[in-house]
Amino acid sequence: MKGIGISPGLVLGKAFVYKEESLFKRYYVKCQREEVDRLKVALDQAKKEIELIYNESKTLVGEDADIFIAHKEMLEDPELINGIIDIIINEGINSEWAIHKVINNFISLFKLRNNEYIDAKIIDLKDISSRLIRILAGSKLAAPLEWEGELIIIAKELTPSNILQMDKRVRGIVTEFGGITSHTSILSKASNIPMVIGVNNITELVVDGDFIILDAYEGRIILNPCEDAIKEYQERKRQRIKFWELHRVRDRETITQDGYKVKVTGNIAGVEDIKNLLAVGAEGVGLFRTENLFLEGLLDEEEQFQLYKRAVDLLGNHQLTIRTLDVGGDKAIPYLNLPKENNPFLGLRGIRVSLLREELFKIQLRAIYRASIYGSLRLMFPMISRIEEIRAAKALIAQVQEELMKEGIPFEPVEIGMMVETPAAAIHSAAFAREVDFFSIGTNDLIQYTLAVDRDNKNVMELYDPYHPAVLRLIKLVIDNGCRAGIKVSMCGELASNSKLIPLFLAMGLDEFSMDHNLILNSKYIISRSNRGELEGQVDLILNLSTSCEVEKYLDNLITNILN
Amino acid sequence: MLVRKVILQLETGLHARPASELVKIASGFTSEIVLVKDGQEYNAKSILGLLSIGAGKGDEFIIKAKGHDAQEAIERIEDFLANRVYS
Hints:
The complex is a heterodimer. Chain A contains 24 helices and 16 strands. By secondary structure, chain A is α/β, with parallel strands linked by helices. Chain A has two domains: 4-228, 3-Layer(bba) Sandwich (Glucose Oxidase, domain 1); 257-563, Phosphoenolpyruvate-binding domains (TIM Barrel, Alpha-Beta Barrel). In chain A, helix 1 (32-61) runs antiparallel to helix 2 (67-75) and helix 2 (67-75) packs across helix 6. The radius of gyration of chain A is 34 Å and the shape is elongated. Chain B has one domain (2-81): HPr-like (Histidine-containing Protein, Chain: A), CATH 3.30.1340.10. Chain B has helices at residues 16-27, 47-53, 70-81; strands spanning 2-7, 32-37, 40-43, 60-66. Chain B has a four-stranded antiparallel β-sheet, with helices on one face. In chain B, strand 2 and strand 3 form a beta hairpin. The termini of chain B are far apart. The A-B interface holds A 70, 73-74, 77-80, 106, 109-110, 112-113, 115, 117-118, 121, 125 and B 15-16, 20, 23, 43, 45-49, 51-52, 54.
C-alpha cells in the first residue's frame, strides 16, 4: 500500500486502529442540570490541557503552536457552549452527543463556504470535539496496556492534540486523510514519529494486532509482512541507523563507548581544503603539508603568513598542525636546485633539506610564528632521524624568535613536534620524547623504511604491508614512549583511517587520528562505537601473532563485532 | 437598538487573526452585537460564527448592537471592519 510519507522513519510495529466513534454513545440523561455541570467541568479541563500543550509545542514548533490559541478561543465561544447546553436541556441527551451535533453543524456550515482557509479550520473543530469527548469518557487515545513493543496507530485522520498526547509506545502513524503542511504533520515531524498519510481505506483493511512495516521514507506500508520482507526491513533499518549515527557523530567530540576522548583531524595540502574538513566534523588539522604551497614557486614570508593566518581563522577553536617544508624523495621541486641522487628516499629529504637551506627554512618559521597570535597552531618537522636535527631546528626557531622580538612583532609560544617516520626515530623515541612537545607518526614512510619496500615498485608492491607485526610493534613503542613522557601522539599516515587498525591504535593509546576528509565520518563512527577498555587487553595478543595474515584476520573480526 | 451598514475593507477578509481580533473587541462590550449578512445573523462574540460567514473584502454587512454601551461598540466595530484602525 502506498501513501505520502510526511515524517521520515522506518518501523515495524503492531497496529492499533483508532476509531473515535467507539468512544461515545447517545443516551438520555436523568438530570439536565447535572449534565450541564459535567460539560462545564470538561470544558475547564480541556482549556487546561490546551494551555499545557501550547507551552510544550511552542518549544517544539515555535509559531505553529498558535493553533492551540485558536483552540482555546473556540472552547470559549458562546455560540458553541450555548448551543451544546441548549441541546442538553431541550433534548435531554448526554453532553457527548450534544457536542457531536453542534460541532458537526459548524463543520457543515464551514464546508458550505468552499473556502480553503475555512476548510483548514475543520480539523481544529474536530480536535476540540474529540478532546472534549475523550475527557468526558475519562479515557486516553491508547492501545490496551498489556500490548508490548512498538505500536503503529492507524486512523482515518488525527488531530494535532492526538499527536502530542500519544502513548509513548507509539512509533508510527498511518492515516487516510491529512495534509502535508497540516499542523498534525508538522507536529509528528517535530516529535520524531514516522507518519504516512493518504492511505485509502487503511482503517478497513487493518485490524488491531496486525503487524505492519511502515516505511515513511518512501510512503510504503506492508501489512503482515512475510519473512523475507522482515529481513529486508531489518537490513534497511541497520543502514538507516548507521546513516543517522554517522551524522550524529559528525557534530560531536569523538568519545568511545567507555568515555575515552580522542581527536579525529584532517590532512590538508592547502587552505581551501579546510571547508571540506569542517563540513565532515574534523576536530582540527593534524597535518598541513606545506610543500604543495611551493610547487609553483617560492612564497615570501608575507604570502606564507597570510596563508597560515587564513587557515587558523577558518579553523576557529580547532588546532592547526603545520608540517614544515617536506621536499625530496618523490617530491622534487626543481627551482631549489637540489643535487640529483641515485636513491632519493635515502637522500636529501625533509628536515635535511631545511637545515641545508636555512634561509628558506627561517622564512617559513617566521611566517608560522607571526600567524601564531591569530589562533591555535603548532609545528612539526619531517624526516627526523637524529636528535641533533631537532636541536638544530630548535636553535633556528630561537633565532627567529629573537629577531621577531627585536622587530617588535608579536608571537605566541608554539608547540614543536616531529614526525616519527624513520625506524631510527621510532626505536629511539624515548630520547626524542624529551626534545619535543608531540609526536606524529607518518606511517607511509615508516612502513617503507621498516620493511625496505618501495610501494610504487611493482615487483615488491605486495610486500608493502601495514599489518606486519614489526610495523605495529614500532607504532606501539612510539605511543608508549610518548605516553611515558607525557606528550601527545598523533598519526597522520594512511593507517590512521584504516578501519581495521583504528581499534588497535585506539587501544594502544593514540591521541589523534589525522586523515583525508572523506574518511573522517567513518573513523569517528568506528571510534565512537568502540570500547577502549575491552580492546586494551587484546593488544599484546595481536602483537604476538606471527604473520600479517593472522593479524589482519583478527582485526577483521574485531571491526565486524564493533560495527554490529 | 443601533444599526449601521458597513463594507468590509480588510484585505484578508474576516479570517484568522481579523476574526479573532473582532471577537476580542466585541467581547469587551456588554451589549449584544450581531453582524447580519444575507439576512442571516451572526454573534460577533463567536469565533465560530464569524468564521462560518466566510466573508471576503468588499462584502456588505449590517451591524446591530443593543445595550448600554451600544453606541461605542458599534463605532469601534465599524472602524475595525472598514479597516480604519486595523492594519
